[in-house]
Amino acid sequence: MAALIPETAKRIFTPETLRSAAKQSQGCLVVPVRLRRAIKKYLREQEEPFLKRKVLRLSASFCEIKDVNLHLTTSTSKELVEDPFKSLEGSKRWKIKSAYGDIGLKYQDDETVAYVASRMPAVYSACYRVLKEVRRRLSGFSPARVLDFGAGTGSAFWALRDVWPQSLERVNLVEPSQSMQRAGRSLIQGAKNLPLIHSFDSIQSLSKNIEKSERQHDLVIASYVLGEIPSLQDRITIVRQLWDLTGDVLVLVEPGTPHGSKIISQMRSHILWMEKRKFRKSKGLNKESKDLVPLKTGAFVVAPCPHDGPCPLEKTGKYCHFVQRLERTSSQRAYKRSKGEPLRGFEDEKFCYVAFRRGQRPGEPWPLDGMTFETLKEQHAKRKSEDLEIDLEDLLKMQTIDAPSDVKDPVLYESDILESDINDEINDDGQEEGGEEETTQADLGGGWGRIIFSPVRRGRQVAMDVCRSTKRDGSEGAFEHIVVTKSKNPMLHHQARRSLWGDLWPF
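Above: the chain sequence. Below: its structure as tokens.
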């Protein structure tokens, strides 16, 4: 496979660019001041009493949905995911125009207010983390037309605006709850530079009210919604409909629970299986007639999986999920449940996700191809005597740089800092200034593994659980436990000590 790649296409990585490309996780995320202001204003306008009690009821509803899903029969799940047309029941269900909302959790006014107060900042943080990685992995991808399925109060929409503030032209929102639609409109009231927004109560309504040429979207996202639909058949039906509306990238996000991970794994398997079948058929048609134009068939996983094979975690008893820490807003600290103690100033939002792109996975060289590494002994042999003479200030600087980068739990984060201090960080367009733009991209050729759980640092070695591709074309993968030692590879050890859960790992 490597021989097919032109020499001019090969990228030369350095230790610095490797670390920059591998960095996908984020530290403690601060909810944008615009969103916090909108939430405060919305809750003041509602003047809802007993909001704490409503937040508890909403949490109980989520638990009830989870219990119902766990008791559903799974005997035909594998067959249905792999081929829903094998059974007559599956084919009949496909012809039924299912309407999301009739089979899921219905949000009335009380549930909507409780959701905005307690869950919206956390859902925003997970969506922002996922979409930020999609932007980093796909250079040049700037969606103009977006579909947000199960939009709710607009958590994913707020994340879209922060990740691609300039490219958004039209956003279609699908949300059956009228209460949530009203809340979403109230939250963005008065915002500047908004794209063209249209709301629909179902996919069928969207398809009827827009022209056929406008149904393809650059980006389709469904966040925290599939788990509220108790039927596996309905989930598959909806995901197939979403994929048909996807022109380039489809993103699915679910809570970081075993059930959420199972949903993501099932939808991942189904879409990849479906597109492989279409690709085989298109190859057969192209062989029969050379005049036919090759169709853009196939699909591959952009993130988090480095390969398109079966998930290697299926029979391990573990599940693939990630975590994003966020500073709690004042509404979360005021209304969320606590066990007799003050809530911490932060919370960790666990989530599962998968991002697909249409087409075939690009055949790119792996990041470590052609790189040579010196052992610690070889590096010491090259040292000169004058290099060992350092003063006390240089020694202190080196010790600071070499300190482990473990994230420590702070006692309290003050998320609602004074608005006067934040105004200086907002530009003339109302957009907050972000951090430095990433200059190094981790390609999609399969040479980057994914750190699934938190690395364990013991002395001069770092142990990590990594999901990686075992073939150059990304068709198969494996889950491996690797140990990086400082004596054998100081450069990779330096990178491993700074790697966090969710980062990439070069192979």
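The domain at 33-358 is CATH 3.40.50.150 (Rossmann fold).
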